[in-house]
Amino acid sequence: MKMLEESENKFDPQQVIDEFELLSKDAGRIQEETLQKILEENGRTEYLQQWGLNGKTDQVSFKNCVPLVTHEDLEPYIHRIVDGDLNPILTKKSITTISLSSGTTQGKPKFVPFNEELMESTMQIFKTSFAFRNREFPVVNGKALQFIYGSKQFKTKGGLAAGTATTNVFRNSQFKKTMKAMQTPGCSPDEVIFGPDCNQSLYCHLLCGLILHNEVQVVSSTFAHSIVHAFRKFEQVWQELVANIRDGVLSSRVTVPSIRSAMSKLLKPDPELADTIYNTCIRLSNWYGLIPELFPNTRYIYGIMTGSMEPYLKKLRHYAGELPLLSADYGSSEGWIGANVNPELPPELVTYAVLPNIGYFEFIPLVENVDGVEATPVGLTEVKLELQFICRRNLLLSINIDKNTEKDLQLAVEAAAQLLLNEKLEVVDFSSNVNTSADPGHYVIFWELNGEASKEILKECCNCLDKSFIDAGYVSSRKVKTIGALELRIVKRGTFHKILDHFVGLGAAVSQFKTPRCVGTTNLSVLQILSSNVVESYFSTAFS
């Protein structure tokens, strides 16, 4: 069943909503048909044949025959595809493109097959969420200031094109057609988006947005981090941007010939606009409401704002002023899961509706069986009505019986950061590590601040962090000293930008970057960057 009719010029948002409602009301049947289609098309692949389905395409046979696996289990098959094996290994249709995950979780990117079906489901998700978004916050004949970046692309040993998932989407012709159909084409030319230097691209994204400031109706990026990163940069370079607009001459910091050539077609002397931007910036109080002041017709800010992006919401709200923050959809490099069809909800409360025709879904209950084996997966129609993103499962601070998630870490940092407010300071970014080099092991929290804090305040922050991990296993272990005192390490300003540069150097895209929150032994390069930039260290006395 096809949800959307292809259209290069426009689509009817109400029709999209109506068709989504029809799909959702019959989700059970749609899931059966989707699984049947997948198994009929790919049943003769090497991977599926080994499980003895023997042509069966029903849900019961699938669940009984095909085991739950992780990406690690599929890696040998994927690597054969990457190396040029043309046999139908995982899919009947040949894979011609490979997506790379950001690599921020395990320290290295994963290879994920990318095909036209995935591109179609991406556009379906985009159109569905836009239809609901546009009903609440309509945009008409505007532009989107999109902080998006293409990563370096390369050919694999087998001749397949490889790049980040976002790069594969942005390079696809369907992406531009869809943005145009949604009346929010981007401000920046392709030369800026796919430029080889992300810092030069960011500078030009800002410049393009300022040139088209009255046309901007949406400010967006894949992740909230990229939007905050962009406007932190604006604080540093705004006077240079104003000078470029006043004189019609691009900054010498932009050296890539293709970017300079593309920008020369957009940049003309405009002293009046330069004065407007200058006067706007000098009257702002600590850059509060910067985005609506620069782009007065903006309706909302858009990007993924859940999970590891939540810590950036406070700063994003500062830049956004009264503008609503709308969280984008739920997906991964492997594929999409759900659309945000309740855009009026704040990011902290956002829920997702799974589109039942873009894949076959099973969910693992969080409750473990008595023997420690995971509970039996359930189908899409057997789960609760709401789907929320909480955290990535494999990011965990744990030494013995303690278990603290990415969300627990975030809440602890938020609590301790309140102590900085009186000194007008904030946590720019943070990460953590479990240090087991000494006995007992202890948690290490890395903070980058936007200024200098007193030793007394930082000692208080360290104690607050320690006390804010309320997991029973952690608290009891701290009391009997089987877990050592928490350590707060302050790193130099710019340290987390070095981590971003590290991943970009490995081929990641800025717009796909997620700060590693729990740095383990598989991420030694990041741990080295953090450790080599420590300027102060404090140990908690909360349980002394």
From TrEMBL:
<dbReference type="InterPro" id="IPR055378">
    <property type="entry name" value="GH3_C"/>
</dbReference>
<dbReference type="GO" id="GO:0005737">
    <property type="term" value="C:cytoplasm"/>
</dbReference>
<dbReference type="GO" id="GO:0016881">
    <property type="term" value="F:acid-amino acid ligase activity"/>
</dbReference>
<dbReference type="InterPro" id="IPR004993">
    <property type="entry name" value="GH3"/>
</dbReference>
<protein>
    <recommendedName>
        <fullName>GH3 C-terminal domain-containing protein</fullName>
    </recommendedName>
</protein>
<feature type="domain" description="GH3 C-terminal">
    <location>
        <begin position="407"/>
        <end position="521"/>
    </location>
</feature>
<dbReference type="Pfam" id="PF03321">
    <property type="entry name" value="GH3"/>
</dbReference>
<dbReference type="Pfam" id="PF23572">
    <property type="entry name" value="GH3_C"/>
</dbReference>
